[in-house]
Amino acid sequence: MSQPYPSTAVSPPAPSSTYRLQLRPEFPFAAAEAAVPYLASLGVSHLHLSPVLEAVPGSAHGYDVTDHTRVRAEIGGEPGLRALAAAARGHGLGLVLDIVPNHMAVPSPLRLNGPLWEVLREGPGSPYARWFDIDWEAGGGQVLLPVLPGPPEPEAFSVDRDLAVLRHGELEFPLREGTAGLALPELLAAQWYRPAWWRAARTELNYRRFFTISDLIGVRVEDPEVFAATHAKVLELVRDGVAEGLRIDHVDGLADPEGYLRRLRTAVGGGCWVVVEKILARHERLPPGWPVAGTTGYDALHRVDGVFTDPAGAAELGRRYVEFTGCADWERTARACAREVLTGDLAAELAALERAAGPELADGVRELLIAYPVYRPYPGEPELDPQALAEAAAPAGPGAVAGVRDLVLRDPAFAARFAQTSAALRAKSLEDRAFYRHAPLLSATEVGGDPGQPALPPAEFHAYCAELDRDWPRSGTVLSTHDTKRSADVRARISALSQAPEAMGRPAGPDPQLAWVARQTALGLGEVPERAERLGQALLKAVREAALHTSWTDQDPAYEAAVAACAPDPELPAGLAAAARANLLGMALLHLAMPGVPEVYQGAETEYRALVDPDNRRPARFPREALARLDAGAVPQGQAEEKLALTAALLRLRRDRPELFTGYTPLPARGPAAEHCLAFARPAGLVAAATRLSHRLAGAGGWRDTALALPPGRWTALLDGGSSYEGEVRLAELLADRPVALLLREGGPGAGARAEAEPGAEAEPGAEAEPGAGAEA
User: Which residues contact residue 719 at a Cβ distance below 8 angstroms, ignoring those fewer than 6 apart?
Assistant: First the structure.
């Protein structure tokens, strides 16, 4: 493999870890600033902020950008951001910004997006027309605006000649110069846009959008002038030292991801840590020439999840699920959803590609998009995926598929739009439909995962970590994000079912598929505050996304009322609570000790149970008091504090002893239960060992005489009061009190780290002065 950027000759600094904060009006810059002392004491090196540029008023996420030139006023504006940066620097922390190059909002009111307003007023002759992917010819010279609540009726429109606007209820549109005096029918026909019922977007839309969301319009950042205009403020913040890193949202949506990243790298210089939100299939790799540190970490997420999933039990759950629900297997479900979404939700995008390819290649375009196994091909690839070509040739004919292949290779504009549509199709058909429709084991249905093969052998996990350490050592890794359908702690509880598939039983509900989903969701969430409301919201979203009985656009009120009444037992079956604890702590250990730059999602340093958004985007709460108690010498009480102690110990080690986190060596156990131990060494002086499939382990008689051979030297345990080990250690002894172990070599590079790394040491300045708030459920 060729050496990815940065090379060994250029090594820009990278965070030791990041902590994600979701900014919103209820949690502005000032709230983040107040949390800085606590977050510094936790051990993170950088705060990762959700998008900070001006967005739709009230936005809970900030990805609906309206103005690239200003920091969002609702969360404190640029003074608030710079004050946060200064406070962070004062505690040794940097900032990483999440930026959104792919799209802007089509907001209400429309004038909030100034460039789009000017395009609607001036048409293709506007200097801003180059900002957006608009097919003027397909729209008959008008941009379709699918923003009306129903079919357009001329009498519902009115004209304000003084303000030069067209009105429809509370909606306002700019009037084309010279048209204000026309009669209404002629006036509507003379505009550079056509207001339409929102349902028209499915088949008539003529601008590129984000997935199937018509109120997010695609931006042409491949144009150097558009790049300069949309990135000026972000680049200023990087130059001024406000930001030390960037997360690039949805890089697959761009026409030329590598070209964009090279232009960005030139603009920010080699010292800025840059990672991309890139969804990689299990056997897909990030293009080695991209000038980034790596991905945002979904590839790590499903591998960590996978090693705590029992393959035999997962297969049995799959068999029971198909038998109980009558639903198809994963491959057929994924293919059916892709066809359904492409010919339905993305019909306008498909039609545009078919027009560009010509009628004789239309079947090839459709079938190749459906068959493509990863999110998108990239410009410059010599071939489309051979497997996809072969699969598409059967229904479409080899001639049509070969014609599309040739068109992709010789027409860069078609290749870019094909790739962008492919990315939207994969995201919508997998993440937002198939993952909700095929649900034997819900913990496997996260971005980048493979529900048809949810378990990961330890050898494959080790191979991934070794490759990460070799090729992308500064890549991001995550377990919970603002986009995960279930937080890591919820997935830890659900994946325990793979060790006892009989515990699913025959759940009751309005229909078998929903009954199955509701039971696993309830077991994953458990007993938490506002459980009924949170569970109800997540299940409603699940059934609408699955689109089997109701959907976002065609709702069935009676069915949805039955969904709201679902209230499965949230208690894990007997024996699985211990397995969930082992999963929870084991996942945290692997994530924080493996190669890469780990990110802790807000509140997830302790037990954090959250479902799909908006549940996982609620204002952050921090376990300040619990961490202060641990730092004062208290013994962790319960798994929430166990996780907090483990997280703080590893984050502080990463910050204070970065040399410990280089290199990677698997450590195989020996004995009758060897498969239940996943252990590795970071050669400079750290060993991590986790229990996997602990319920199966207990049923088989426990560790017995299974042992782990430690690397040379004497090793001190960080989590059990400082026990020392040397040579071969019995796992029944090493893992007697908890299902994980973290060891440091005595007298080596990690010597002396314990006092600073382990909770129970003296807290850093400011930690105990913070007012306390309990850990979020």
Answer: 645, 646, 649, 738, 740, 741, 742, 758
DSSP letters spanning 143-195: EEEEEESSS--GGGEEEETTTTEEEETTEEEEPPTT-TTS-HHHHHHHSSEEE
Residue 381: the pLDDT is 64
At which residue do the structure tokens 């400079």 appear?
Answer: 684
Q: How far apart are CA 603 and CA 617, in angstroms?
A: 11
pLDDT score of 722: 83
The pairing of strands 669-670 and 707-717 is antiparallel
In angstroms, what CA-CA distances link 724 with 34, 589, 627? 39, 19, 25
Q: How confident is the model at residue 379, as a pLDDT? A: 63
Least Cα distance to 530 among 407, 614, 598 occurs for 614
Dihedral (Cα; 133, 136, 139, 141), 10-degree rounding: 150
Rounded distance between C-alpha atoms, residue 342 and residue 351, angstroms: 10
* Contact partners, residue 475, CB within 8 Å, separation at least 6: 275, 286, 293, 294, 295, 297, 300, 468, 595, 596, 597
Token pair listed for 262: 């090279």
Sequence-distant (≥ 6) Cβ neighbours of residue 52 within 8 angstroms = 23, 62, 71, 72, 75, 81, 97, 98
- Predicted pLDDT at 382: 56
Residue 496 CA to residue 579 CA, distance in Å, equals 6
Number of Cβ within a 10 Å radius of residue 417: 19
Q: CA 177, 183, 184, 185: dihedral to nearest 10 degrees?
A: -100
φ, ψ at 356 (rounded to 5°): -70, -35
Quick check: 68 and 217 in contact, CB under 8 A? no
Q: Say if residue 595 is exposed, middle or buried (CB neighbours under 10 Å; 0-12, 13-18, 19+).
A: buried
385: alpha, beta or left? (left if phi > 0; alpha if psi -120 to 50): beta
Q: Where are the alpha helices (DSSP H) in 293-361?
A: 298-307, 311-325, 330-343, 347-357
CA separation, residue 348 to residues 106, 251, 763 (Å): 18, 22, 58
3-state secondary structure 443-454: HHCCCCCCCCCC
> Which residues have a Cβ under 8 Å from the Cβ of 189 and sit 6 or more positions away?
none
Q: What is the dihedral of CA 168, 173, 177, 178, to 10 degrees?
A: 0
Instruction: Please list the ranges in the chain whose pLDDT falls under 50.
Output: 1-12, 749-758, 760-777
Number of residues assigned to the chain: 777
Q: List Cβ neighbours of 556 (8 Å cut-off, separation of 6 or more).
A: 549, 550
Cβ(438)–Cβ(337) below 8 Å: no
Cα separation values, 448 from 277, 302, 306, 618, Å:
11, 7, 12, 24
Phi/psi at 577 (5° precision): -65, -40
d(CA 731, CA 708): 7
